[in-house]
């Protein structure tokens, strides 16, 4: 599950990078290609969409990062519990050395 979440984080990061590269801080970028104001995806709407998509991808990356941390800590706790169980069982698994019976005087 950790690997799957890591892959999702990488995909979201790549998409976020592409979105940031498409945007231009001075009003250019993808929004500059739609100069007409009466189009469905005109400049203001394109900029709004890109901004919302950017914030959504940031939120997804944060959420998956926290989830991945939870899976790592959960795996560590499970491994510690498993090793504690093995340590408790280890002395019982080995036969105890027989001690000679005390001699009666």
Topology:
Elements: H1 2-22, H2 43-93
Helix pairs in contact: 1-2
Overview of this protein structure:
This protein is an all-alpha fold. It has a domain at 2-23 and 45-88. The protein is built from 2 helices and no strands. The protein has helices spanning 2-22, 43-93. The longest helix is centred in the middle third of the chain and has 51 residues, at 43-93.
Q: Unreliable segments (pLDDT under 50, ≥5 consecutive)?
A: none
Please give the count of helices. Answer: 2
> What can be said about the biggest beta sheet?
none
Cα radius of gyration in angstroms: 30 Å
Oligomerization state of this entry? single chain
Brief summary:
With 105 residues, the chain is mainly α. 69% of the residues lie in helices and 0% in strands. Helix 1 packs antiparallel against helix 2 (43-93).
Keywords:
single chain; about 100 residues; mainly alpha; 2 helices; rod-shaped
